[in-house]
Amino acid sequence: MHVAVAQLDASTDPAANLDAATNLIGRAASAGAQLVVLPEYSSSWEPRPSAASLAAAAVTLDGPFVGALARAAHEHRVTVLAGLVERNPAGKSSNTVVALNSGGELVGAYRKVHLYDAFGDRESDRLAAHPPEALVLDTGGLRVGVMTCYDLRFPEMARFLVDAGADVLAVPAAWVAGPGKVDHWLTLARARAIENTVYVLACGQTGRYRSGHSVIVDPVGEVLAAMGEEQGVAVAEISPERIQEVRARNPSLVNRRFEVRPL
Length: 263
Description:
Layout: E1 2-7, H1 14-30, E2 35-37, H2 51-57, H3 64-76, E3 79-86, E4 93-100, E5 106-111, E6 127-128, E7 136-139, E8 142-146, H4 155-163, E9 168-173, H5 181-196, E10 199-204, E11 215-217, E12 223-226, E13 232-237, H6 240-249, H7 252-255
Parallel strand pairs: 1-2, 2-3, 4-6, 8-9, 9-10
Antiparallel strand pairs: 1-13, 3-4, 4-5, 7-8, 10-11, 11-12
């Protein structure tokens, strides 16, 4: 199947973000994609958010933002993964990825496990952390596991999803820019692919303070498609046969001597 990473420059204007996101979904579908991965914070992004500003911008899973993405998924007959801020009237908002199938149905939601308390930031001051729950979707003969941004720095998160059956890892992100950060992003995406013999679809936001450089990586770490700092889409073909071929030569999952258990 063909898959796409849809690199977005989101702002605090949800209507503009939605227009851009649905346009990118259409472009990806026109290029043959059956699965489209949008970044983290696609509904709204600001460089210095607070708990209050995120709560004000948060959306519900049955609200108009997700509904419009669902209609785009149905119109273009593609599966869509998109990161957003989810409203929680009882407490802090959640950093959530929604999964919409090609019929426009909401088939899953992943709420971020590892919040970005690093590099001088504290995402946990404004968002709720969630216990690990594996979201793995069947699409196009492959099983796609979902994580978010900072999760990529934790190899056990990827292995947790692989143990749940994933052979593709989708990583919506808003990877903050800074010295060495693009190198970290690309190195980690390739490492998660190599060590797990899976595809990695790493979709980042672009624009000021964000790193861009979305990539699609194959199970030996080869970059199949890559972007720079432009808003747009990159498409590549992936297949279960390629995973089987790689795992026959590199049976690292079979040879492992440790298991991953959530704390």
